[in-house]
Amino acid sequence: MPIAYQYLTSLRGDSLPASADELLQMRGQGSHLRFSIGSDELEHGVAIASPSSWDTGVQVHSSSELVDATLSVTAGALSYPLWRDDNDRKRVAGRLAFHPAIGLVVGASGSRGPFLSSTAAHSALGADREGEFTQTAWGADIEYSRGYYVLRAETLFSDWTIPMAGAPEVGMPLSAMATTFESKYKIGPGLYAAA
Fold first, then answer.
1. pLDDT single digits (tens) 82-107
2. pLDDT the model gives residue 131
3. How far apart are CA 195 and CA 190, in angstroms?
4. Residue 22 phi/psi, 5° resolution?
């Protein structure tokens, strides 16, 4: 699992900071966050892309020798997947992967969907506006394999839009970028080295 997927941000889908000052106080505290709006439980922040759970929804996949294409409609956001929808909005995500040569895969993906729960949005604004507060993510990846080795690289850009109930406000969207590089060499049956 790419390490970038495991890094926890200072954002939550069910709880919000009241101001930029409160958000900045939680900077770097992704493993244990509590904000003043929404859920008051002590909980971890969201990752740029959740590596450990999947949304409930539908997916369509098609492939040929040159291209793989996937499109899905699900509950939750890329960083905040859900079994049960908590904001009555859906996320749309897609991926295209090209196979221009044997052993080479070049991919691009995108995702956009509501990030905040209805409860958090109502607590912040007192209105039915949770559809305005989204996570939008774009990614690109490349993989090359030949013989006993595999090389991979991936970059993911993500933007979150959240409400700020009080001053001072913070510029929107809040952004993050993650890049990973991986190499793997098969030494023998069941034994490999990776970095």
1. 655 555 678 899 999 999 999 999 99
2. 61
3. 17
4. -65, -40
Q: What are phi and psi of 153, to 5 degrees?
A: -145, 145
What is the DSSP-derived secondary structure letter of residue 169? Answer: P
Q: pLDDT (tens digit, 9 = 90+) per residue, 29-51? A: 777 888 888 788 888 888 888 76
Distances (CA, A) of 6 to 22, 42, 44, 179: 23, 19, 11, 12
Measured CA to CA, the distance from residue 155 to residue 120 in angstroms comes to 30
If 0-12 CB within 10 Å is exposed, 13-18 middle and 19+ buried, where does residue 43 land?
Answer: middle
Residue 70 CA to chain centroid, in angstroms? 17
CA triplet 63, 66, 71: central angle to 5 degrees?
Answer: 35
| Cα separation, 171 vs 173, whole angstroms | 6
CATH number of 52-194: 2.40.160.10
Residues in the chain: 195
Q: Which residues of 84-106 are buried (b: 16+ CB within 10 A; e: fewer)?
A: ebbbebbbebebebebeeeeebe
Report domain extents, the chain.
52-194
Q: Supply the DSSP symbol for 148.
A: T
CB atoms near residue 57 (< 10 Å): 17
Q: Is 63 exposed, middle or buried (0-12, 13-18, 19+ CB in 10 A)?
A: exposed
Q: In degrees rounded to 5, what are phi and psi of residue 70?
A: -135, 140
CA dist 195 and 187 (Å) reads 14
The two tokens of residue 25 are 């106080």
